[in-house]
Amino acid sequence: MSLPEFGVRKPVSNLMIFSAIIILAFYSLTRIGIDIMPEIEPPIISVIAAYPGANPQDVEIKVTEPLENQLATTPGLEKITSRSMEGASVISLKFKWGTNLDEASNDIRDRIEQAKRYLPDIPDEMDNPFLYKFNTANIPIVFFGITANQTYPELYDLIDNSVGDALRQLPGVGTVNLFGGLQRQVNVWIDRERLEGYGFSILDITNALDKENITQPVGNIKMGLTDYLLRLPGEFATPDEINSVILGKSGGKIVFLKDVARVEDGFKEVTMIVRINRNPGLLMQVQKQTGTNTVEVAERVKKKIAELEKTLPSDVHMQIIFDTSEDIINSVNSLTSSVWVAIVLVIFVVWFFLRQSAPSMIIALTIPFSLLTQREFPAC
Predict the structure, then answer these.
(1) Which backbone phi and psi does 323 adopt, to 5 degrees?
(2) pLDDT for 95-124, tens place per residue?
(3) Rg (CA), the chain
(4) Whose CA is closest to 127, among 62, 48, 51?
(5) Which phi and psi angles does 68 have, rounded to 5°?
(6) Cβ atoms of 198 and 246 closer than 8 Å
(7) Integer Cα distance of 284 and 115 in angstroms
(8) End-to-end Cα distance, the chain
(9) For the chain, does the N or the C end have fewer beta carbons within 10 angstroms?
(10) What DSSP character marks residue 270?
(11) Distances in Å between the alpha carbon of 158 and those of 3, 77, 182, 313, 320?
């Protein structure tokens, strides 16, 4: 029995099959993820290594070239490019499409360890390189602009602790990043003349701070059935503790850090300035987790922001700079309206030429049916 013959002679069976497909299609429609573009992971892995304080030439000679020589032997590699800049090296490795990037990442990590272990040119001051794989799912979904007046010096820590931590706990939220603002940092301003007068160097200060700013486990005490873990807290809690660090002796006198330097509870050097409507502020971006619904995650974030804003100081104001979920909703609404227009036009054209309503309805129903079944059976 052919398919057309089955459709004519078995109308009940045919109706049940189509009804089951429609039910499954509607169920799939409720589970579908909505995003501005499909999830794409280009076969490119970037190796980023930081070498603080080094100029581009030193970065190229001591970091980029040794790493490039090792990474060039990675299986499946198609092209390798590098960029050396002040304090950092970025090496991009392009692989053939279809390459397993997880396996390629493991191969890259092995070669980085080999380069660090066997090549003497790799400096000890270089931070441990990390890998970055671009994915369209990593594109931020919402940008917020945050401004403040009196609270601006503490704005970064306030938003990071009060808002950022709360957003990171929401289902579907991947990371929350902040840009701009003032970040707290304890600065040690050294008096070079006094330092040289006592016979010490900057390296002596660095070593003294490293040795004193340590918290160490010191064992355990067992009392009956209870085992107590012991630790010796030694990390600095206040700038006064840093002032009291002993550098050594000079001329029979104990020299403290405060004798050769001034400790300041201040901020990091400003490398990025963010202004919102000409006012200094912060830029906060929210990224979603892979495979989650962008619209749902964005709605959760905006709802949570509205709640958290009430708990912030009165001079702190938050506003949405860019929201990708709005573009997605507009695209879905545009698609929906186009489908309805197509259905109406099909009904009208078929009825105009055939003057029969049944063929018009059958042809019109094939449009949403084909869209729904395409979601359920995308490979067909």
Answers:
(1) -135, 110
(2) 988 888 888 899 998 888 888 776 556 666
(3) 31
(4) 51
(5) -60, -40
(6) no
(7) 37
(8) 23
(9) C
(10) P
(11) 67, 45, 11, 10, 18
Residue in the block written with tokens 């300035």: 273
Closest CA to 290 of 30, 41, 92: 41
Separation between Cα atoms, residue 168 and residue 187, nearest integer Å:
30
Question: What would the pLDDT profile of 299-345 be if each residue is shown by its tens digit?
Answer: 999 999 999 999 999 889 999 999 988 888 888 888 888 878 887 88
pTM of the model: 0.71
* The two three-digit tokens of residue 343, written as one number: 């259905």
- Please answer whether residues 217 and 297 qualify as being in contact, where contact means their C-beta atoms are separated by less than 8 angstroms: no
CB crowding 109-124: b at 16 or more within 10 Å, else e? eebbeebbeeeeebee
Q: Report the C-alpha gap between 365 and 342 in whole angstroms.
A: 11
Q: How far apart are CA 258 and CA 40, in angstroms?
A: 55
How do beta strands 279-288 and 275-276 pair? antiparallel
Q: In terms of Cα–Cα distance, which of 278, 292, 355 is closest to 325?
A: 292
pLDDT for the residue numbered 125: 64
Could you say which DSSP state residue 55 is in? -
For residue 196, give the H/E element and its range: helix 192-197
Element at 44 (helix H, strand E):
strand 44-50
Residue whose structure tokens are 């830029």: 283
Long-range CB pairs of 244-251 (<8 Å, 24+ gap) are: 245/208, 245/209, 245/212, 246/208, 247/198, 247/200, 247/204, 247/205, 247/208, 248/200, 248/204, 250/198, 250/199, 250/200
User: Distance between CA atoms of 165 and 305, rounded to whole angstroms?
Assistant: 12
Question: Alpha-carbon distance 371 to 18, whole Å?
Answer: 14
- Ordered by where they begin, the domains of the chain are 3-36+328-376 (no CATH), 44-134 (3.30.70.1430), 185-267 (3.30.2090.10)
> Tokens standing for 281?
């502020």
